[in-house]
Amino acid sequence: MLMTETLGSPIPPAALVSLATSVPPHVLLQEDVLTAAWDVFGARFPEFERFSTIFSNTGIVKRHGVKPFDWYLERRGWPERTEAFLEGAEALFIDVAEKALASAQLAGSDVDAVVTVSSTGIATPSLEARVARRMGFRSDAMRVPVFGLGCAGGVSGLSIASRLAQARPGTNVLLVTIELCSLALRLDELTKANIVAVSLFGDGAAAIVLRAGDGGSTQIEATGEHLWPDTLGIMGWSVDPEGFGVIFRRTIPDFVTRHLNSAVTEILSRMRLSMQDIDRFICHPGGTKVVSALESALALDQGTLSHERQIIADFGNMSSPTVLFVLEQAFAKGLPARSLLTALGPGFTASCVALRHTA
Predict the structure, then answer these.
(1) Which of 7, 12, 177, 271 has its CA 20 to 30 A from that of 59?
(2) Closest-CA residue to 94 (of 108, 115, 83)
(3) Beta bridge partners of 281
(4) Pick from 113, 171, 96: which is nearest to 321 by CA?
């Protein structure tokens, strides 16, 4: 989507007023997770020894979980997982949203629309309704809960929030992406996909305040998506009485290497941009192999995506918020004139947002 004009007058682009991130308090060290995984899977899963090398290949040093370490070592069903999701997600929502609003010098009552992105738990009423009183949201605030975008949700959610802000210049739109991926870890599934999930997933949240019409040094220049046909089985959730089960049915790094460049080129073309116009790619890091595949697909020197590697090392794969953690680090280091946020998720989908930054 390009920013357009109406009756000769330009529609002001949405600007990022503030960005905040948050993680739950419980630290999960990768070496401890591997030791526990040996105890849980080693005797029951003959292939575990071969798959155990995944833990060191992820590049992860630590992650954060919404529950203490020992909680994950017992089998849990839907009721316990859902209770943990609601309790943990509400606390993280309030923490990260209050940080973003404080940075923007706003209160909850100043928020005109809330976009909430999450795919790791079910909440009806939705999360922003559950925390509305504690956040001080007005009763007329627009609420847009978004489910099912997975790892692409941070970028796609930013696209949705920016369109809402642009549609009503001067209003404040709050985007909150929150995922408790650790609650999907399973002790009963003796599969490579589950071992990959155990080795990768962590919990976290990010929030952004957007506003159009009154300036801002970082603006949403354009957005775009690409959905590959016949790829529903690459990534997603299965659902059974115990909870969500992760689906990884094709090798994602190989898919990225073969298919991402042409999709991003097509998206940029619709934005009236090219690869050469992008000063910095800001990507969702699924793991170190995915980061290397991204560098290859985007014709970048190996090691270019340094922020992505640092975030995956410190926080693991938190699904939708992860790319916004990378964006926060890029902000701290200094954004170039034009960046492209990219993330891949269930569908199988590539989502992109072009950012224009003026010092």
Answers:
(1) 177
(2) 108
(3) 340
(4) 96
**What integer pLDDT is reported at residue 215 of this predicted model?**
67
CA distance 297 to 290: 10
Give the span between the Cα atoms of 183 and 77, in whole angstroms: 10
Distance CA 287, CA 355 (A): 24
Catalytic residues: 151
Query: What's the predicted TM-score (pTM) here?
Result: 0.92
11: left (phi over 0), alpha (psi -120 to 50) or beta: beta
Neighbours of 266 (CB within 10 A): 13
Using CA atoms, how far apart are residues 355 and 118, in angstroms rounded to an integer?
23
pLDDT in tens, 153-196: 999 999 999 999 999 999 999 999 999 999 988 888 788 888 88
CA nearest 338: which of 285, 275, 256, 269? 275
Amino acid at site 135: M
At 1, list the tokens.
């989507």
Q: Residue 2's closest CA among 272, 282, 289?
A: 272
- Chain centroid to CA 150: how far? 7
The structure tokens 């492209």 sit at 340
Yes or no: say if 128 and 93 are a contact pair by the CB < 8 Å rule: yes
Which residues sit opposite 68 in a β-bridge? none
Judging by DSSP bridges, how do beta strands 235-240 and 243-248 pair with one another? antiparallel
Angular region, 15: left φ>0, alpha ψ -120 to 50, beta rest: beta
Is the backbone peptide bond immediately before 348 cis, with ω within 30 degrees of 0?
yes
* Model confidence pLDDT, tens digit, residues 51-75: 888 888 888 999 999 999 999 988 8
> Is 223 in contact with 346 (CB distance < 8 Å)?
no
Q: Is 1 exposed, middle or buried (0-12, 13-18, 19+ CB in 10 A)?
A: middle
Please, are residues 90 and 133 in contact by the beta-carbon 8 Å criterion?
Answer: no
Tell me how far CA of residue 171 lies from CA of 93, 273, 279, 289, in angstroms.
21, 29, 30, 41
How far apart (Å, rounded) are the C-alpha atoms in residues 275 and 176?
29
Structure token digits, residue 111: 């928020």
